[in-house]
Specification:
The chain has about 270 residues and is α/β, with parallel strands linked by helices. Helix content is about 35%, strand content about 20%. Helix 1 packs antiparallel against helix 2 and helix 2 packs antiparallel against helix 4. Its EC number is 2.1.1.297. It holds the Pfam family MTS.
Length: about 270
């Protein structure tokens, strides 16, 4: 069997792009390499590795977990079953944060619930002058995040904390978070990639807002004057999150749309003197 033969069979079971990604990963080459090696016979060990990856993907396991990587905001982020897989929708959160801190000479940024560290690392990469810290209650997630920071050469302070408890008394110019926001029992949790991702990073109470309530309560005292709280949320949660932020005393509350035109991020600013 040649590589082209294997790819042809794989495409009958999984997405064509997924098949190419798995083959490139297993064979240690890029897409151009797949084309160049298309007519080469597959050695038995390579065929066995490819078949194992194919079976796991056909069973629904995320490609990002199979290859151990996901691109996010131009960075190669290592991921594993202990962390949420970074998604393009979340890039609007990074973009908005960068806009909020653009005029500051040395912005202080906190990523709450960092997981793989993707958001914190993207902000640090785009704003090297910033003092970026990131927290998570999962030691397994922090281990992955620290490794990503070391591999990418980006300095971020990693903190073990249940939400913002460990940073009481500190002030930040921007607090960002992609918290759990899916409703407990939502049928989507049993579908697609979500079946394999950590439930603690996905679900948050009957209405999906439990963790967002905590953030909106804890964040304002930890914001500097004019500092922003920015949170990702579900496709239909923007009005509820804006209400939570207004009740928390934040000003200029608004929402921003993702690449699909969905209100994906909401934020508010601490008034001067509050």
């Amino acid at each position: 069997m040649t590589l082209d033969d294997w790819l042809r069979e794989a495409r009958a079971r999984i997405d064509s792009r997924d098949a190419q990604v798995l083959a490139a990963h297993a064979l240690g080459c890029d897409r151009a390499g797949l084309i160049a090696r298309g007519l080469d016979p597959l050695a038995d060990p390579a065929r066995a590795t490819l078949d194992r990856l194919l079976e796991r993907r056909a069973a629904g396991e995320p490609v990002a977990y199979l290859v151990g990587r996901r691109e996010f905001f131009g960075l190669d982020i290592a991921v594993g079953p202990g962390v949420l897989i970074p998604r393009p929708d979340t890039e609007v959160l990074v973009e908005r944060a960068l806009e909020c801190i653009a005029a500051l000479p040395a912005p202080r940024v906190l990523d709450a619930g960092t997981g793989s560290g993707a958001i914190a690392l993207a902000i640090k990469a785009q704003c090297p002058r910033g003092r970026v810290q990131a927290l998570d209650r999962s030691e397994a997630a922090l281990a992955i995040a620290r490794d990503n920071g070391r591999r990418l050469g980006l300095e971020v302070g990693w903190i073990a904390s249940n939400w913002l408890e460990a940073v009481a008394g500190e002030e930040f110019d921007c607090i960002v978070s992609n918290p759990p926001y899916i409703r407990t029992g939502d049928p989507h949790l049993a579908q697609g990639d979500l079946r394999f991702e950590p439930p603690s990073a996905l679900a948050s109470g009957e209405d999906g807002l439990d963790d967002l309530r905590i953030l909106c309560r804890q964040a304002p005292p930890r914001l500097a004057e004019g500092g922003w709280l920015l949170c990702e949320h579900g496709y239909d949660q923007a009005p509820a999150v804006r209400a939570l932020m207004r009740c928390a005393g934040l000003a200029d509350v608004a929402s921003w749309r993702d690449i699909a035109g969905i209100e994906r991020v909401s934020g508010g600013r601490r008034r001067g003197g509050d």
